[in-house]
Fold this sequence. Notes:
Blueprint: H1 3-14, H2 28-38, E1 53-57, H3 62-67, H4 69-78, E2 83-88, H5 93-98, E3 104-107, H6 116-126, E4 131-134, H7 139-147, E5 152-155, E6 162-163, H8 174-184, H9 196-199, E7 210-214, H10 228-240, E8 244-247, H11 254-263, E9 268-269, H12 276-285, E10 288-292, H13 295-302, E11 307-311, H14 317-320, E12 331-334, H15 343-353
Parallel strand pairs: 1-2, 1-4, 2-3, 4-5, 5-6, 7-8, 7-10, 8-9, 10-11, 11-12
Amino acid sequence: MPSCWTTVLNWRKSGSVKREAARVTSYWPALSALNASRSTRSLPAPRPHPERRILVIRLGALGDFVLSFGPFAAIRQHHQAAEITLLTTAAFADLARRAPWFDRVQIDARPPWWRPGAVLTLARRLRGFDMVYDLQTSRRSAWYHVLAGRPAWSGIAPGSSASHANPARDAMHTLERQAEQLAMAGIPGVPWPDLSWLASSDAPTVPRLFALVVPGAAAHRPEKRWPIERFAELAGRLHAGGLIPVVAGTQAETPLAAAIRDVCPPAIDLTGRTGLAGLAALAARAAVAVGNDTGPMHLAAAMGCPCVVLFGPASDPALTAPRGPGRSWPTVLRVAELADLPVDRVAAALRLTA
């Protein structure tokens, strides 16, 4: 067994590596040795633009992925003749393969660092690119710079050839932050992308006049959820105002839809019945969308649907709010505690938006 693997396994046995992201800096010597021991030839020097093989890294979550639509399109426009590969997670692979921006989509299983075989497989996938745009810009994805053999790199990895060297980058909204990152890498503009390919996706048949209701959010973030009884009352008001509430979400959120239909029987439950592309097409036809700070609301806003997005203390809309065509902002209602947000205030915002 190569000495680098012995080092990694010894770290694992000693208990010094407990989480893959928490101790990433400890692995630099061993994984650098892995690169040297496994490489049979030196990597080619970075080529001047236009590069022939481009890698884009965007792993998630859904809202962040949607906020990268514009940067994806800008990279495609800048490298029109290149082969562009997206490295993402399985949840977004189907959506990415439908998009006009990528020639190939690769899945990152995000292996833990103490699984040398899986890490080696990932390293092989990262090799051979002329330019890499790391839009994830996390500690983990920055480490991929080493696994990739330190090619030309846009991001925050040490030694990046096109570093996003703005110390205030974390105080910027994701959309503006990525636009600035690309500008520093030589891509001067990030126009709003054409999403007609999404709008034309297959979607369930629903009434002509409907409101998209998104009562869920990440299961491990209950503080990001407006109480379901408030959503149920709001659904009744939407129906009284001439809009059929259509509840969207994952299969795990079906009980939320059931609670809404208990109060408002005309509501339609589509939880677990739409993929991301179908959800986007549905949002493109909705009169309005209302929901928590969660990925489907990013899709709805991106498709040009008028949106009311509910924020509590868990996240800052100035940094993470959904954005729409022309970088427009949705209607954001932010309160100290979502449990204190009255239905009247949300209903008023919906009337203004609709």
